[in-house]
Every structure is written in structure tokens, then in C-alpha cells.
Amino acid sequence: MSAIAIPVPVTRERLTPHDLVTYFRCPHEMELAHVLRATARSSPEGPTLALAVRTPPDVVPLMHSPLPQPPVGDPPVNEGRLDIFPADLLVYEDEGEEEELPILFPSEQVRPDPLFLRHGGNLIDDEMGLSGRPDFILQRSGGIVVPVEYKGTHPFHGLNHNHGRTFDMIQLLTECRLVHAMTGRRPPYGLLLYGDVAGNGEHEGWVQLPYSEAAEHWLQAAVASVRADAVRAPVPSERTCSTCPPHRDGLCRYAVTHYTGGDEPRERFHRLRY
Collapsing DSSP states into helix, strand and coil, what is residue 117? Predict the structure, then answer.
């Protein structure tokens, strides 16, 4: 009697807002980051297993991101701090972000919503297979609930559509979807706050990013594309490679720049190299 093969359930790859940002920049960077997280979980002393990446050694690098730009247009940057009104409530704050919030809420306007704490502060979207933690969530007049992503950078410098602000928008769109999944109500927009930490707040600003049906359809297609990508080819460029953590740790064979950010040896990563 021949043995009956029992199919092994395939676990759907759960993605985060940061995963989508990283994939948009370079799919191979996201692949390496995922494998590093998986190997780190397998050993309490850090990643010690060989890197089992899906990217083949003879892959042809891409010239640009495999994902199209999200359909958000070019929303204007508003100078100064975001106005907070008496009816606004702070209903969620990511752990560790308390001192980063560039907005002061009186105690009577801070009301954590247990809905967002059900999974230890993680927002879960089972339908799309997403999870993540916005920096903050505001409840505004009329009961509108919107995510807030805070960046301590200058809002009027170095944030062109090929780099900074596009990444911020992708992250925020994904957080809008997470809020939608948790509350059952689509947020009409999300908020990007720029705090300009280096400039001591001299050039603060904020962007109100619409979360339209077109943006959600883009997100659905992007998530499907990431999961269907069996190659996860690199998109090497001087700009992205210079700030890539896996490249910094000597794990990427496709990088176009040499990392010079430190001289200390990284012995625990030596065994993980290709």
C-alpha cells in the first residue's frame, strides 16, 4: 500500500508597511530582511543559519522598482504644526513614541481605544495579510479615525517622488488600510507629520494624504505582486545601496556602493554571507 501524501499548509507571508516600502525600493533588500528576521527567531543569540533567499545568484538586476507609483498625486506640504482642535482625540500611540509626538494633547483628549490594543498594539488585517503599528491614531470631528506617521526630517528638502516622500506615502497608505480593517470604516485620509529634528523644528510641516478607492486598489495589487514575486531581484543604485542595512552588514552581492559606515567587525553575520 503506497503512502498518501498529505499537503502541508502554506502560510501566507504577512507583510508590514515597512515591507512594502522596502520592496518598492529594492525587492532583494526586503527578501534579505525577511530571512534575517526568520533566522534571528530560530536562535536566541542571533541569526546563525545560512541565508535561504529565494533570489537566484544569476538574477538580472532591475533598473527601477517593479511596483508603480501609488495614485496619490502630489499633495501639498503645509508649513507649521498640525492644528489640533478641542474635539480631536489621541486614541492610539505606538509604544516608545511618547516623546516623539510633535503635538501636545491635554490629558482629557488622550483616550486610548481598546480596539487598537487587542493584539498587543499591533493592527491586524487578516483579509490582506498585513500587520503594523502606526505612530499615532487620531479621532477627529465626526468620529473620523486617521493614522499619523511622524518623520523627524525636513519636509521641504530631499523628498522627491523617487525617494523620501513616496516611501512615506506607501507606509501611510498601508496604515490607512490597517485602520480600515480594525474599525470597519475607511479613513478618508492619513497624516504625515515632518518634525525637522535636525533643524530644531524650524521647518515643520504636514501632508494630508487622501486614502481613496484607487489607492486601496493599488495597495491590493502591490501586496499581491510582492507575494507572487518568486525572484525578488535587486534594484541597485548608489542612493538606495548606500542606506541599505543588509548591504551595510555585507549580505548583498549586488550593491553598487561599498559600505564605509563603520570599522567594527560583524562576526555574527560572517556565516550568513553568500
Answer: helix
Amino acid identity, residue 220?
Q
Q: What is the per-residue pLDDT across 132-152, written as a single tens digit (0 to 9) for each?
A: 999 999 999 889 999 999 988
- Mention every residue, 6+ apart, whose C-beta is less than 8 A from residue 143: none
Judge whether 82 and 205 are in contact, CB under 8 Å: no
Alpha carbon distance 147, 171 (integer Å): 11
- Say how far apart CA 122 and CA 142 lie, in whole Å: 25
**Whole-angstrom distance, CA of residue 44 vs CA of residue 68:** 38
Tell me what pLDDT residue 45 has. Answer: 57
Query: Which grid cell sits at 137?
Result: 491614531
Chain segment 176-187, per-residue pLDDT in tens: 999 999 999 999
Is beta strand 123-125 parallel, antiparallel or unpaired with respect to 130-132? Answer: antiparallel
For 126, 224, 243, the CA distances from 274, given in Å and listed in that order, are 34, 28, 20
> What is the C-alpha separation between 109 and 85, in angstroms, rounded?
10
Separation between Cα atoms, residue 97 and residue 100, nearest integer Å: 5
The residue with cell 487578516 is: 126
* Eight-state DSSP code of residue 93: E
CA distances from 110 to 138, 161, 185 (A): 10, 34, 21
Q: From 128, 122, 168, select the one nearest 149 (Cα to Cα).
A: 168
The span from the CA of 271 to the CA of 266, in Å, is 10
Which among 269, 156, 170, 145 has a CA at the least distance from the CA of 226?
170
Q: What grid cell was written down for 163? A: 525617494
| pLDDT (mean) for 236-242 | 85
Phi, psi of 193 (to 5 degrees): -110, 135
